[in-house]
Amino acid sequence: ERVLEQVDIFTLSEIEVQGENDRGKGIIKKLLQFKVGEEYTMEEIERRFYRLLGTRFVKDAKYRLVPDGLEHKMVIITNPQSGNFIKVGLNYDSNLKAGLLVNTTFSNLLVNGSKFSFDLKVSEAPALKARYMLYTASKPNIGFRLDGRIHYYPGFYYDNNQPFTEFNLRHYETRLDIFSAPNNNWLFTVGAGLERYSQASRFFDSGSVDLRLLQGNGYASILHDSYDRPQFPHSGSWLSVEGRLSFNARLKRTIQE
Prior knowledge:
By secondary structure, the protein is mainly β. It has helices at about 20-30, 40-55, and strands at about 10-20, 40, 60-70, 70-80, 85-95, 95-105, 115-125, 125-135, 140-160, 160-180, 185-200, 210-225, 240-255. Strand 10 and strand 11 form a beta hairpin. The radius of gyration is 24 Å and the shape is elongated.
């Protein structure tokens, strides 16, 4: 719903959020990143509301632009979302076989503006992944992301292109990222983490080899997205650059007696 004049660019004099409590109002303003006194085109406003709906923090969102002298007052009307989801599914992979998938997502857990997700795969090759994200109200916008992952999967030694020995490979990883989005087109991320691989023979035969690798990782990435709309853009560009540096790697090799 909009109350508009024939204007191509709108300068915001005030931003009002309806339908949320005080905590929810702060989250909506933080996600939309509108600023009083700044100018916005209708395309830019629509694009930000598309992105808001994609976060699942609200079920629905509408807005009005009410003339206020030479500027416009933005009134945002939202239908709050509980923010908590539980999903269950099935998966089959020719190598990893069948698995039961469970995903949970919780918004505003412990801290306002946060999101916690938990993914579990129950199968012969189980996996567990957890992520906690926190958005702050600072300017420029700064966020934190903590990831943890555990994954078990099979591996094989080959002789003349034929597998002759099977072993289990265990992968553990934890990572902390700091990211900032100075505007809706740029995202900068830096992070660091630890990673460990462990190979253990399925059958503990005498003389089998157990390998363990522990290393630190540094991460950096830049994302630029100036597409003019979320689906089927007509103009704009997209660029992603990612880098990873591993350091202080330690390889331990033991032979089972």
